[in-house]
Amino acid sequence: MARLFRFEWKKSYGRRSVLLVILLFTVLNFANIAYSFRSDSWLADSPGWQKAYWKLYDQLSGPITQESIHKLRQVYDPLAEKMADFTFNRVQDPNSLTGINEYSDYLMMESFYVLPMQNFLEYREKAQRIAENAQENIHLYNRLGNDYESRKNVKIYHLFVDREIDSFAYTEVWDRLSDYTFSSWLALLVCLFAACNAFSQEKEVQMCLLLDTTPNGRKKTAAAKCLSAIAFAVLVTLWFSLVDWLGFAWVYQTFSGCSMPVYALTDFATSPLQCSLGLYFVLCTGMRILGTLVFTLLCCGISSLSSNALYPFLLSAAIALGCSGVATATQNLYHPCWKAFNPASLLFPKSLFSHTEYWNCCGEPILVPLVTVIFTLLCIASVIIFLCRKGKPWKSLDMSLKN
To answer: Model pTM?
Structure first.
């Protein structure tokens, strides 16, 4: 089996054309990350703001204490007073904090220190209100006899009751990384391009007829093809995820804030996750691996029904594009079924984890991301079983396609 695996890997995934596509897409991904930094970053347009921000960062980052708040107010309060009575200086002043003028100093401090720290400090109260509302709902639904809604609100209560943000850190790099999905498309296209001839090549040269005459020939070959497709999808997705991490670390010159809770990001204030930002993006990588894998194996399944490699690529790409379009269009809809039963949702983890949503499974509330993972694993298992089966059903399906 090991020799067969190496043979299938070399035949489908070790081709120069595949390696060239990976290289080109890697360069394209780095270029897109750099472009997104220039167009979206808070500090990219003003070197003065960037220099002033990092000058104060070591003093104000870390645990939010009375001392750190006092240091912040020492810098901010004089600027706020001048802003209140319009006595600030708008003339170019190289001795100001940003090197521009006092008004610019005020805007930088207000936008990137005062408001974020205020939001972090107020998050405990917001989470507590959610927990209190959930507690009220528990009593209400218990009186009404609605066991499902009661159990759901119990879970919501335990998720939010003890939440707080007691540290300050620069989180923009993680905010941008959570929105970045370009690499998911690149990884998916690479995998579909490599997998489209996994089975069709043998059908084209009629090698499949010879495999049918050997004991377990089709079964072992199909198993080796599935294993090589799984390994390739995992490695490609890991590679592009690593490129994302390195690319954002390079353009932003920091990965500060990786230990902050994921709900420190504004869009994740009601997330069901309670892990750090660093662990969240490890989880996202796993989700993207599953999302890429299911479409890669689907491409292999279509390839087993065709003797032309172009058709599996086009058809699997169209299916993946359609599912991704549905996932993107329905990510803000209330009903969770569009996310729960769409494997393409795994390619965009933010839509799954930014809000706490449950699926009613026989009266038991289950988090939507968990339902999506289970459904995707079932799809993967179904495709693998289809590819590894042997006998007349396979051949009759192939003959029907030829006719």
So the answer is: 0.88
